[in-house]
UniProtKB/TrEMBL annotation:
First and last residue of the signal peptide: 1-20
Annotated InterPro entries: PhnD, Phosphnate-bd
Keyword Signal assigned: yes
Domain of life: Bacteria
Organism listed in the record: Sedimentimonas flavescens
PANTHER family on file: PHOSPHONATES-BINDING PERIPLASMIC PROTEIN (PTHR35841)
Pfam family, one: Phosphonate-bd
Taxonomy of the source species: Bacteria, Pseudomonadati, Pseudomonadota, Alphaproteobacteria, Rhodobacterales
The protein's name: Phosphonate ABC transporter substrate-binding protein
Gene: phnD
Entry's transmembrane regions: none
Length: 303
């Protein structure tokens, strides 16, 4: 991680950092969830539109894990990112003045929540949480809301046991990201895991948006081979954030660009939003106060 951050810092230092006088480069961070090249491809259209809007070189960064984007925002080497709610909570609890939430992805019905989805192979015989007792279970990334934070709270409430290996599940593993969890379950490397989806539309499509939809689009899985075994309560969709030190006109231009992306280029919005979306709508910090408190309590408890 230190090596990655050093590369990001050096790259941005050479290009010139954002300042009150203006910017000479703009950097967009992309959270993990699928392999780096697919993430870059899905967001290349946004990179080009951003270059046109700002008139400066724009680079995409797809670190190996969520913390690469989080530390980039905190350190000033990344200017904008679409974070999960838990990732935003980590940034805010580390430095409340680092970033500002400006937009959130809306589902086709206008809502902006999603779910952590527990799933297993169809042929495993696993259909509910009780069936995974003693078996292996996969989380994605420690800074993922749906891939760790929420299920690590709600599943123990449902089972009466902690998520520690040997407590209820035989072994609990971190796979590294949503795509890795999906592939690991599909391949039989782990018995079950969690990922994210809006929970709308058809299971066969991987729902309307989310990591399952992206995996289907990429040809990684056939949803008929998988089965949903658990679903969280609705989770606040994560925000698109901008660093607060960016010039006001830059923040205004980027908010307008992403806010109008669906109307400007529906295919681009599909790639950026990980599936079907009604577009990106305004959001404020207040929407995330509950998730911030959950993360604060997890930190206090040392879990």
């Amino acid at each position: 991680m230190k090596h990655l951050l050093a590369i990001l810092a050096a790259t941005t230092a050479l290009a010139g950092a954002a300042s009150a006088e203006g910017i000479t480069q703009f950097n967009i961070g992309i959270l993990g969830g699928e392999n780096a090249q697919d993430r870059l491809n899905s967001n290349e259209c946004l990179r080009k539109y951003t270059e046109e809007a700002l008139g400066v070189p724009v680079k995409l960064f797809a670190p190996a894990d969520y913390d690469g984007v989080i530390q980039g925002l905190l350190g000033g080497t990344i200017d904008m990112a679409w974070l999960g709610a838990s990732g935003y909570a980590k940034v805010y609890l580390t430095d409340a003045d680092a970033v500002e939430p400006v937009l959130v992805k809306a589902n086709l019905d206008g809502s902006y929540t999603y779910h952590s989805i527990g799933f297993a192979r169809q042929d495993s015989g696993i259909t509910k949480l009780a069936d995974i007792k003693g078996k292996s279970f996969g989380f994605g990334d420690p800074n993922s809301t749906s891939g760790y934070l929420i299920p690590s709270v709600e599943i123990p409430q449902a089972t009466g046991h902690s998520m520690e290996s040997g407590e209820y599940f035989g072994e609990v593993k971190f796979t590294g990201g949503h795509e890795q969890t999906i592939v690991a379950v599909n391949n039989g490397d782990i018995d079950a895991g969690v990922t994210w989806a809006d929970g709308q539309g058809n299971w066969e499509d991987g729902y309307n948006s989310g990591a399952l939809r992206k995996a289907v689009d990429a040809g990684l899985v056939d949803m008929n081979d998988l089965v949903e075994i658990w679903r969280s309560k609705p989770i606040p969709e994560g925000p698109i954030v901008l660093r607060k030190v960016l010039p006001e006109d830059v923040r205004a231009k980027m908010t307008a660009l992403v806010g109008g992306l669906k109307e400007k280029d529906a295919d681009c919005a599909y790639g950026v939003a990980a599936g079907e979306t009604a577009g990106f709508v305004p959001i404020t910090h207040d929407y995330y106060e509950t998730i911030i408190e959950v993360r604060r309590q997890k930190i206090a408890s040392g879990s």
